[in-house]
Amino acid sequence: MDNLKRSKYELGIVSFISFLFLTTNLTRPAFGGSEDHEEMGIIEPIIRYGSEMEKLEEDEWQMVQKKGNQFVVNDQPFYVNGFNTYWLMVFAADNSTRGKVSEVFKQASSVGMTVCRTWAFNDGQWRALQKSPSEYDEDVFKALDFVVSEARKYKIRLILSLTNNWEAYGGKAQYVKWGKAAGLNLTSDDDFFSHPTLRSYYKAHVKTVLNRVNTFINITYKEDPTIFAWELMNEPRCTSDPTGDKLQDWIEEMAVYVKKIDPKHLLEIGLEGFYGPSTPQRVQFNPNTYAQQVGTDFIRNHLVLGVDFASVHIYADSWISQAIADTHLPFIKSWMETHIEDAEKYLGMPVIFAEFGVSAKDPGYNTTYRDTLINSVYQVILNSTKKGGSGAGSLLWQFFPDGTDYMDDGYAVVLSKSPSTSSIISLQSKRLTLFNSMCSMRCHWGCKKKKVLEEILFRDEL
Fold first, then answer.
1. Residues annotated as catalytic (active site), given as ranges
2. Which of 319, 282, 288 is nearest to 302 (CA)?
3. Cα separation of 92 and 101, whole Å?
4. Torsion of CA 157, 119, 354, 390, to 10 degrees
5. 219: left (phi over 0), alpha (psi -120 to 50) or beta
6. Please, what is the average pLDDT of the chain?
């Protein structure tokens, strides 16, 4: 490590120690008191961890793996504070907007976020990646290469979604259009899940993306640790079959297919988290009765071979009522805790709350409420984290840099315009980073540092 890197490393250690003191309300006796020994017991692992990271920094960027109900990197826990910015590839395809991709990662990194979820598809639309089945626009593919290489530069990992349930960016509706153009007898967009030709179209896309050699860093996607995980589909639903059998069969086939091509990366489905027919005792936790009729089944779907972790989305303002209501926050807490419990008891895997937010267009919205909602989500994650639980992290929907307001669907968070929200995000990142760095898999929260670490990381006030 050269002197410049060493000075940055030492500054980082000092920052962590400063953060530790600033976020603790303990009054300390003179040097030599027992509380000083306990505090030093927590500082020393930070310094030791820094020494370990000094060696790791010179090694290859490590792949995220799963051990039981936790994500791990180099055998250390990896709890996630991250975000969604779906349009990165399309922006990277135009030189006039490519700089916004770098801004997204730079600003997210500045508040400690470590994972970004974005689209690795654009099917038959404007600036399409896949113009027709197995026909690609090389310039757009190079734009996706740029997104991956920039994420790597800022040490942000990517969850890459491979198609959409909705018509935006093409999705299953576009696959059905391609099938009809080829003369197939198709009657519903849900034929995407069942028709063998459409399944073959999707598989061909998966194979092409996973085997892609990044033109910026000369690494195949399936070998690149920058990619955290693959997502089969954004918010899959199959409303034509409320039993869930049709979607279940598709998930089973596609999960195994992805894993055959790429056994190294993690895989998730992209579900919203609705309970279905296999767990009638859990449907009471759904936000509404319609949720159990969309062909998804949280526990059954996630028991599929090849699926490594669960995904859940959180949209009280879409599912319960658009107007901000007193019922929203209790629902969010219950929704999260129920899925964390299921991930621990029935699935034995981590769960990421892969989309959450609130729209500025909602009646009754204000930034104070948004901060309260974000903090509520973060607190549930922290409550799971301190037990080493399955609540593995959350991804804010969605994170935007300055000058992209015209893309805002109401949910955009722009740090420069939201200092209070920025502070909440940053503190969550610091807490999770400190936890990740100090608690090894061997600790299991039975170590002497537990009491002090909990007091520092998990105080209610921000």
1. 235, 355
2. 282
3. 6
4. -50
5. beta
6. 87
